[in-house]
Amino acid sequence: MNTSRSPTAAPADGDAPEDKAMRRRRQSTPASIPAVRRGDALDVANLPSYGFGTRSLMWWGTAGMSAIEGMGFALMIVAYFYLKSRSHLWPNEGGPPDLLWGTVNLGLACLSAIPNVLADKAANDHDLRKVRIWLVVFVIFGLALLGVRWLEFTALNVRWDASAYGSAVWVLLGLHTFNLVTNYADSLVVAAVVFKGPLDGKRFVDVAENAGYWWFIVLTWIPVYAVVYWGPRV
Amino acid sequence: MSADAGSVSAAGVPLERSQRARRKRADAVAGSGEVLRDGAGWGSRAALALDHTWRDESGFIGWLRTNDHKRIGKRFVVTAFLFFCAAGILAAVMRMQLASPDNHVVGPDFYDQLFTMHGTTMMFIFAVPIMQGMGVYLVPLMVGTRNTAFPRMTACAYWLYLLGALSLWFGFAINTGADAGWFAYVPLAGPQYGIGKRADVWNNLINLTEAMGLMVAVDIATVILKMRAPGMSLRRMPLFVWASLVASMMIIFAMPSVMLAANLAQFDRTFSTHFFNPAEGGDVLIWQHLFWFFGHPEVYFIFIPALGFVSTIIPTFARRPMFGHSAVVLSLIATGFLAFGLWVHHMFATNLPELGKSFFTAMSFMIAIPTAAQIFCWIATLWTGRISLRVPLLFVLGFFAILVLGGLTGIMVGAVPFDLQVHDSYFVVAHLHYVLIGGAVFPLFGAFFYWFPKFTGRMLDERLGRWQFWLFFVGFNVAFFPMHMLGLQGMPRRIYTYGAETGWGTLNLIATIGAVVIAASVLLFVVNFVRSLAKGALAGDNPWGAGTLEWATHSPPPAFNFVALPVVASREPLWVREADEPTHVSGLSAQTREGLVTTVLDALPDVRYSYPSPTVWPFIAAVTVVIWLFWSNITPSGMYYGLIPPAIAFVAWYWPSRKETAEELLLQRRP
Amino acid sequence: MIGGLHDVLMPAGAQAQAILALWHWLLPICTLVFVAIMAALWLAVRRAPRVAQDDTPDVSSLFEREPKVTRTVWIAVAVSTVLLLALLAASVFTDRAIARLPLANALHIELTGYQWWWAVRYDDADPSRIFTTANELHVPVGRPVIVSLAGADVIHSFWVPSLHGKKDLIPGRDATVSFRADRPGIYRGQCAEYCGYQHAHMVLYVVADAPDVYERWAAQQRKPAVAPVNDEQARGRDLFVAKSCAMCHAINGTSAQARNAPDLTHVASRMTIGAGTLENSVSARAAWILDPQQFKPGAKMPGENLAPEELAALNAYLGSLS
């Protein structure tokens, strides 16, 4: 049992790919190492000091935040269609948003899943070098996403104070942008810690959780894109 | 031991001064370089080490930096109770104004601020936070762990809450108090008719208190799901913990609605958006939908923890476990779900389609069924139990009488045709106070008397408690029962005066007298509290002979809660000891703040968790967030620039310290 | 000051009568349930033996079922459910009864809610029969009335308890409410949705008269304002038009045609002024004109600094507008 290995050490040579996958699974399987009965006591000294996936408290915190923000998106989308149902012309002037930048961003967001998944895997493997590489790639991707998001706002063809339609579109896109920006800032901080240290095993969990939260950003982008860009067109 | 060995951690990282001193003490206590682990009993070396590890620094800095859930929970409860008294005083002033027709105690402007402040404070600043605060204190103890899951987040939440509450009252103090009602309907609260900054003050409060509520809800839900004592499967979880879980889940799904609504309203006011402006495609009614989609579940996140109090107090004073424990759990969960399907019953007088409204009548009736099931289970527990009629149970009996009456008038107003008569009249004022005071405040006082010994180590005075109860019970009914009649006689809500020709004077006078009696009862409680804090009888670990885990440790609990985390083998761990089962956990570090993460369903030990250390950054982060909020009210560019200080604060909060990393590496085991 | 009838339990119209019928189901059943639960609770507490706090708890229920108690609880839940269903049925039936008010030969009224008064417009297919008044509705007994509701500024609510339940006046959303007065009388209503400072002083009277009395009233309301019969009244009319009164108030037959405040063409025929703030007497009118803020602080009407004989002339003119 590798009880005293430092988190920065490279994986042992004998790790075949099947072992890696098995180890990843075991790392997120709850209670994979049981407590030891010692008389009246249940001894937990040899339990791991962190775990991945649902074994990590941060997973649950992130899930809670995702539920909260997901609810916010759901309500905003409902509000969008509610206001649409009460209007005769939607949008009432100016036409729907241009499709170009929104669709580009949709593509970029889906592509960003790649460095995201790879960073997650590297974190599960405790592979510091790979984590650093994929986080840097991810940060660059994120910059592109933010830049294109800025262009999207310029191509909406409506001001937020022109009508209820304009207000709804700006706020829906704005909500997602707020989440995008805060998650990106999160990722920058995690990347910085992974480079600068101090490091222990829990930082790998932080990388994995940050990757998980990024999924939320991408998955909410799909319905928001559909509503903002195709809502007025159907 | 040489001084050198104590100045450098095992990972070679230099230690800070205070940590060095602590390490030296702990090492001296441990007697060797190996990490001391818990599992031994009171008075052991491990217990002493735990105390050194978990005790906060003394003085103001320690108080500011704490993330001890007990201190934070007490902060929530005390702050919320003080605001309860303040909002109660506002109500007393309103009652003085309404005691006779054409009165001139206050004018319409001030009166509008009074009822808005009363409602807003009671609902957002008192009721939900105090229930959450009791949860923050009690849940980790009841599930047998050392702290909540995200103690720094809950610490930050408290400061956001306090600053929000103070900002609302500051606005009131400078005659910019919110004045559009606690529900701030547009267009009255909108940019055209809500003049000045009053509605902005309200919108800010919502952002801050609801952010607090959400943060605490995520924390409590995580503790309950992932940090229960080994053996405390979901089936063995206490009913108050179930209630806290259901309430926390409801908060997570309901609070975003009011935050969204308040922010949309704020955008209408600050950025000229048109969400609520019919002239530009907006809709006035969507405010009500968004508000009440939150607002109805909200009364349940006040009510459900109170049901948890009742379900804890009754078994203790009937000397038997709850009858129908599983039924009560299912009822709590059903109530939590159903509560999301009722919101339109606050909008029956609008022009929504009639068939839709009838659906909400049906749903409103349906939610009475799980509540009725709980009531029958409680009565069955009392019927088959052996009773010790102490003050907590007395308040629970009062709860029955008042809540059931309020619930039945709730059925009445749930019926659309009848509601069309009494909606927005004093009948509803009576109903809401019967369910909120009966359903939440009576159990809350019962909970205070029940858990004061655990919080402070002393008992509240029984005789004063009985006097308080009877004054409160009688005063409450004298104040609020006549309001049913006033509503039926056509008296609308939120009017600052009325003419003598309406004939409403007599009943209003009676109501005012009742209000004075209520005030006297609350004063009696404050006197009882202060006296008992100083001179109350010493309580001991378990003065009530109760069965839940918080009574398995000292009163008040030490900073580390339990000298060894309990292992649970039944639903009532202190009443039933299984012979061959383990009784406690050993092996957690006594020299660092360590706790145990367990699995969700069966609470098998899973992972050792090292708690974050106390720090001042949650406080600083809260202050910077509040500054950002107010800055963006003053100028739109504040929305961007104001984000920089919070960003810095949150990064500093998260950034791992060398000391903690070193400790972590010492104890690290990979999964 | 006129009281008027304003009691949910004393209906004077078909709709309020239907709602009272529902009350006659709700009250007894809910009272019965309350008494039953309180009795069960009282009995439970009374018959259970009293013990000390440290008495050993009885944990047998953790290991054994309690069939008798379980059955009783199930029965109680079942009975509660049945009662709830009965009340649901009663509620739905009442809803339908209200929706089925016969509307043949209905009177059409357009009610617009302003901060803090009611604009009342009697509609008619024949435009010459349309007239406008404020704060007071007259309706013929036995004839249905359809009221269209519009909110001009913020949300208000139309509620006359002895005639019907309430309906909100929401800006941007038009609504309709129908009622029928079945007995002659004066029925008091009051705005029932918080609408700002003077929400408390936004009263609406509904006067139900025999059909011929109503027709006489309506015919009078259709006529333009009564012409002044003496110099003082003529002076009053001139003052009305010259001062700021005409900027907000209309009097048909003069050049004052603004619609920002109650129509005063037949103001002397109304029971109150200021939407129920004061009775409509000479002294009250005088005090009101001089300083409305004294009685209705925050109302949108400014005071008018008139010399005593100007005030008397204006008051005499307004008092003649029956």
Helix content of chain B: 55-70%
Q: What name goes with the CATH superfamily of chain A?
A: Cytochrome c oxidase, subunit III, four-helix bundle
Shape of chain A: elongated
> With helices defined by DSSP (H or I, 4 residues minimum), what is the helix count of chain A?
7
| Poorly predicted sequence stretches spanning 5 or more consecutive residues of chain B | 1-17, 26-32
What is the overall silhouette of chain B? Answer: globular
Order of helices and strands of chain A: HEEHHHHHH
Question: What can be said about this structure in brief?
Answer:
The complex is a heterotrimer of chains A (234), B (671) and C (322). Chain A has 234 residues and is mainly alpha-helical. Chain A is 66% helix and 3% strand.
Structure write-up:
The complex is a heterotrimer of chains A (234), B (671) and C (322). Chain A is 66% helix and 3% strand. By secondary structure, chain A is mainly alpha-helical. Chain A has one domain: Up-down Bundle (Four Helix Bundle (Hemerythrin (Met), subunit A)), CATH 1.20.120. The relative contact order of chain A is 0.15. By secondary structure, chain B is mainly alpha-helical. Chain B is built from 22 helices and 3 strands. In chain B, strands 2-3 form a two-stranded antiparallel ribbon. In chain B, a hairpin with a 6-residue loop joins strand 2 and strand 3 (605-610). The two termini of chain B are 33 Å apart. With 322 residues, chain C is α+β, with helices and mostly antiparallel strands. Among the domains of chain C are: 107-209, Sandwich (Immunoglobulin-like), CATH 2.60.40.420; 231-319, Cupredoxins -  blue copper proteins (Immunoglobulin-like, Sandwich), CATH 2.60.40.420. Chain C contains 7 helices and 12 strands. A 5-stranded mixed beta sheet of chain C has the order 3-2-1-5-8. A 3-stranded mixed beta sheet of chain C has the order 4-10-9, covered by helices on one side. The longest helix of chain C has 34 residues, at 14-47. The mean pLDDT of chain C is 96. At the A-B interface, strand 2, helix 2, helix 6 and helix 7 of A face helix 8, helix 9, helix 10, strand 1 and strand 3 of B. Strand 2 (41-43) of chain A pairs parallel with strand 1 (584-586) of chain B.
